[in-house]
Amino acid sequence: MRIAVVLAAVAALLGAALTPTWVVRHAEVRAPVRTAGIKVVYQVDGVSRIHKLQSDLVIGPGTLEAEIDLVSGTITGDLWLPPSYGYFIVFGFVPNTARTDLIPVAKVTGTIKDGNVKANAKLDIELSEVTVDAQPLDVGQACRTVEPASIDLAGPFELAKMRMKGAYPIPAFGGCQGRERLDPLLTGLISGPGNTIDLTLTLLPAVP
Known about the structure:
This protein is mainly beta and 208 residues long. It has one domain (35-203). 12% of the residues lie in helices and 55% in strands. The strands form 2 sheets. Strands 1, 2, 3, 4, 5, 6, 7, 8, 10, 11 and 13 form an 11-stranded antiparallel sheet that branches. The radius of gyration is 32 Å and the shape is elongated.
């Protein structure tokens, strides 16, 4: 009798050991990632008022290739602007002309909140082809601001067309070396706060 009980117990143990145990692993369920990014291209036109010179610099037409995320409310983009040719009066009576290149050094970044957009662009300001009273002024090949101008812009957000305004300081100039060093002269004439900018961004049709 005892032998039968022992044999039965051993059989039960062997049966348990030999019976496969199935572990069901459920796939991890993750919440879907919400994205609402759209890529757009804007034409950029505008004007900047240079405070010290009391003169306007026409901007564009350029382009802004941007990605707008309507979920996170962010904008990032690549800005391109053509050269601008300005005419201004120095010392109240001396006419001057110059080519001004606004060269982006970083992506344009911005945020959309409560129906308004705020953005920032960082641009080197480069001067060339300068004339004073119709006479060429040699400013060298690398006459530009010693650091980028940081331009803050704001306005109502409209996908099809936006008007954005802002004010910004122009940093000092460096590298303006032709026959003589002109950094102090150009810095004194141009650099400083109180410059304004008014831009219009117009959505361009998508290329098929």
